[in-house]
Design a protein that fits this description.
single chain, alpha/beta, N-terminal domain of TfIIb, Rossmann fold, 7-stranded mixed β-sheet, 5-stranded antiparallel β-sheet, 12 strands, disordered N terminus
């Protein structure tokens, strides 16, 4: 049952899309991945329909949140470097298209450009951009990434875009891969980003699409609510309305659905998540393989990996058709700064 409209709590800002202050309760949810103990609310703006996660986290809460719960502690510099090298092989582009893995902005950087990836995670995107002839910089709130950055020789600022990292540098491309939905005040972030662009600079953002077919089918069990990490749940029209307020015009937009997301969505229905407990479905295995089990065990693991790869790939035809219709699970939006008149 939908709750009556209520005023936004005093510790929260207004709706980033329309500046509205009236919401309806759209349902209670909790962290079904990594075991955050609290319960949260999906609140729908009564004026424009934008959905937010309440209570809203603050920018200063993010380092501790991601450092505690996000599963990057098992990553190694060797693994990240190997993944980046594999992403640049001749066969990789076709594979990414079929698997829905090309929903990442760094693949659209041009040689010689300065690229800033906000929320760059492990630094994978920076290594890819470097391999494409660009000059990459990154921003990441998760303190676990600093060790990787040092070992990989990457320029990653530990903190947020609001710290004004890399002073004096303007960027030809700013990338936010599955990031804008994590930012407490996305409009304020877009305003800062617009000020860091070169003339003719671009912003490529990728984020879950609340208007997707899978969201409509699975409702509250949709894996991309992903609370409390996802603070905003956008659809294309509302997002572009918000971006225009900060001088950023939509250049193009399309949906891309990672096949792995669909596999995880289907698998998530097999078990009921328990509040405050990490879900085994989302656990990251150790990055370094263990020496045990002998040849037979390794063969068995290889067969399982091949079967899983074929199963994930089988979603490709369905997802590529859904994407053509614009109802895919992930939106990729390219913005450009409006020219001064």
């Amino acid at each position: 049952m939908m709750a009556e409209p209520r005023a936004i709590p005093n510790n929260l800002v207004n709706c980033p899309v329309c500046d509205g202050y009236q919401y309806v309760n759209w349902g209670h949810v909790f962290d079904d991945r990594y075991g955050h103990p609290d319960s949260f609310e999906l609140a729908k703006c009564q004026q424009c329909g934008h959905i937010m996660t309440l209570p809203r986290l603050r920018e200063e809460d993010l380092p501790q949140l991601y450092g505690t719960y996000y599963p990057r502690k098992a990553l190694t510099a060797e693994l990240v470097a190997r993944q980046a090298a594999q992403a640049q092989t001749l066969f990789a582009r076709l594979t990414r298209w079929w698997m829905g893995g090309d929903n990442q902005g760094q693949f659209h950087v041009h040689r010689g450009e300065k690229m800033l990836d906000i929320g760059c995670g492990s630094g994978f995107s920076l290594l890819v951009a470097k391999g494409l002839g660009a000059e990459p910089y990154g921003v990441e709130p998760d303190p676990n990434v600093q060790k990787l950055a040092s070992e990989l020789g990457l320029r990653i600022h530990s903190g947020s875009i609001h710290d004004q990292p890399f002073p004096g540098i303007s960027f030809d491309l700013v990338v936010l891969n599955q990031v804008i939905e994590h930012i407490p005040e996305p409009g304020r972030a877009l305003e800062v980003i617009a000020g860091r662009l070169t003339p003719g600079g671009r912003v490529i953002l990728v984020f879950p699409n609340r208007s997707s077919l899978w969201c409509r089918i699975f409702g509250k069990r949709w894996i991309n609510w992903h609370v409390p990490y996802h603070l905003h749940h956008f659809e294309k029209q509302g997002f572009c309305q918000m971006a225009a307020r900060y001088g950023l015009q939509m250049k193009r937009a399309r949906t891309i659905t990672p096949n792995l997301w669909t596999l995880l969505q289907v698998r998530s229905l097999r078990s009921e998540p328990i509040r405050g407990q990490p879900n085994p479905l989302w656990q990251v295995a150790d990055a370094v393989p263990k020496e045990s089990g002998g040849k037979r065990k390794h063969v068995k693991q290889d067969v399982k990996a091949i079967v899983l790869l074929l199963f994930v790939g089988a979603f490709g035809l369905v997802n590529r058709c859904i994407d053509l219709l614009g109802f895919g699970d992930s939106l990729m939006v390219e913005l450009e700064r409006q020219q001064d008149t």
